[in-house]
From TrEMBL:
Residues 1-269 form the RmlD-like substrate binding domain. InterPro entries: NAD(P)-bd_dom_sf, RmlD-like-bd. Pfam families: RmlD_sub_bind (PF04321). It comes from Trebonia kvetii. This is NAD-dependent epimerase/dehydratase family protein. Coiled coil: none annotated.
Length: 345
């Protein structure tokens, strides 16, 4: 498939381009500020506020499908008009369109929202997302509008970085105990979007995680997974009227999930440390294992066993993936807390 990923330089867009390339698709992707170092992608600078530029790129790329993950929370012209421009370009080229929308189109007054729920936004951002949805439905009725929730990954999302900054004391604030969302793992969401692009879906789809949890619980789960001090993650209710922002928005993705091969895991599942793969007698080969340590240097100093404690930062190297190590009593002492490691697949 020839795929055009608009907003390919963003957090979600990078995962979509990566998975699309690995699946053998030919990928054209866009950035607005700086070109990501992702190889094997035909990168183009694009500002979706320009209807002509979006159309020109689509005519040049002639994609089978377009996935639009571009937005700017505070900019109506990008989020609303830009979404419309992409729909016009998809219609002009006959490409399938998958547009990423948000749970922000809802007020949170209803207990939950399924694919048939009409938008009732309470924030300018939610209104811009809802306006884009309306334009897309009119211009490209065969498009998929995929509403999602907080996007979390393996340490690199803005939500996870904030939790780490709180734990490190490099930022202040608290995580709201009463602001509820259905976070989704970025790899699940990207896989679902690629499914939408390849199959005859049309209309509104909900692609959010299975668990409705507060931002505070999300932060504590991230802290537990990453070996951070949970006591350093403050929680507090949101003060009334402080933000034009919905409080408790639960996306019900049941109907969409029933049609997807991709499982939309809940945060309690994807943030839980995986069961130990080394629960008997672990043999750590330094050539194969590199540990990602996020706990204190003091703990690392108590390490025993033939392990390396190199800290890996930055993007996951190709061919590596995560696993977890659980305490079994027979593992080296410094893995006696739940930890994650990188290993060659
Ligand atoms: N992150 C979440 O928790 C969350 C929750 C619900 C819904 N969503 C939705 O998920 C989608 C992706 O979110 P994300 O977190 O991946 O966003 P992100 O990391 O902020 O990426 C946004 C992308 O949009 C591009 N962009 C911004 N303004 C643009 C413009 N005027 N013209 C062209 N491109 C522009 C950015 O390009 P540069 O980086 O090159 O400037 C970047 O590629 C969005 O539709 C968002 O509404 C996200």
């Amino acid at each position: 498939m020839e795929l055009l990923v608009i907003g390919g330089s963003g957090y979600l867009g990078r995962q979509v381009t990566r998975q699309a390339r690995l699946a053998g698709h030919s990928v054209v992707a866009t950035f607005r500020t700086s070109m990501p170092p992702e190889p094997g992608v035909d990168w183009h600078k694009l500002d979706i506020r320009s209807r002509d530029d979006v159309r020109a790129l689509a005519l040049r790329a002639r994609p089978d499908a377009i996935i639009n993950a571009a937005y700017l929370q505070s900019d109506w012209a990008t989020t609303a008009d830009g979404g419309m421009h992409v729909a016009l370009a998809a219609a002009a080229t006959g490409a399938r369109l998958v547009h990423v929308s948000s749970d922000a189109v809802f007020s949170g007054i209803a207990p939950s929202y399924d694919e048939s729920s009409p938008p009732d936004p309470v924030s300018p951002y939610g209104a811009a997302k809802a306006a884009a949805e309306t334009a897309i439905k009119g211009i490209a009725p065969a498009a998929v509008i995929a509403r999602t929730s907080l996007i979390v990954g393996d340490g690199d999302s803005k939500h996870e970085r904030f939790v780490h900054a709180l734990a490190a004391g490099s930022t202040s604030g608290a995580l709201f105990t009463d602001e509820v969302r259905c976070p989704i793992h970025v790899t699940d969401l990207a896989a679902a979007l690629l499914e939408f692009a390849a199959a005859p879906y049309a209309g509104i789809c909900h692609a959010a995680g299975a668990d409705a949890i507060s931002r505070c619980e999300l932060g504590l789960l991230i802290a537990a997974r990453d070996g951070l001090d949970q006591a350093a993650i403050p929680g507090a209710p949101r003060a009334p009227g402080t933000l034009p922002h919905p409080l408790d928005v639960r996306l019900d993705s049941t109907r969409t999930q029933a049609r997807l091969a991709t499982r939309l895991r809940g945060a309690r599942e994807f943030l839980a440390p995986a069961p130990s793969l080394f629960c008997r007698k672990p043999e750590f080969r330094t050539s194969q294992l590199v540990f990602r340590r996020r706990t204190s240097a003091a703990m690392a100093a108590t390490s025993t066993g033939p392990v390396v404690s190199t800290v890996i930062s930055g993007p996951m190297p190709t061919g590596w993936s995560y696993l977890s190590i659980a305490d079994s009593g027979s593992v080296p002492r410094w893995t006696s807390c739940l930890d994650r490691a990188l290993y060659r697949a």
